Amino acid sequence: MKLIRSVDILNDKKSILRLNIVSIFLLVLFFLLFLTVTTIIPLKESSITFSVMQLLLVTAETFLLIVIHELIHGVFFRVFSPKGKVKFGINIKKGIAYAASPGSKYSRGQFAWISMAPFVLITLSLTIACFSGILFVGSYLFLATFHAAACAGDFYWIYLVLKAPKGSLVEDTEVGINFYH
């Protein structure tokens, strides 16, 4: 197999800036989407206001979501490469939290699952929590919107995986991904 593309997202300031800009667009898009979701099915609580206590709680929940998001990536890395080591990190200056399995290679389909699993599982869980009355509508809108917009990097990986030639392997690295064919 020959290396056909290497993507270093962690050290590419332009890519990080582009992803942050995309995240702003996604904030608006997902807020409108999740607001629409809350209007389709009647809920016990229709207010979108926050109390100070709710604001403190949603802040703590946001940090918890980041941890859970990266843990989900880690679980899927291990599912598809049981012997691979998983590393977790955060770069506060760049605003990036990450899970990585350096040196592990995955099929395009496996890497797509690894990339999308947190978005799908967390969005589904938050939506179920909202509709079952466990999560206030305002909290749901904030958490679901923030999380979905924060998945911009994962969506970027999916875009790159879809563009890669069929039969390619994706290698996770400490700074991004490599494609082999």
TrEMBL record:
Keywords: Membrane, Transmembrane, Transmembrane helix
Keyword Transmembrane in annotation: yes
Name of one Pfam family that matches: DUF3267
Top-level taxon: Bacteria
InterPro entries referenced in this protein's UniProt entry, alphabetically: DUF3267
Regions that span the bilayer: 21-43, 55-77, 111-134, 140-162
UniProt-recorded name of the protein: DUF3267 domain-containing protein
Annotated organism of origin: Candidatus Enterococcus ferrettii
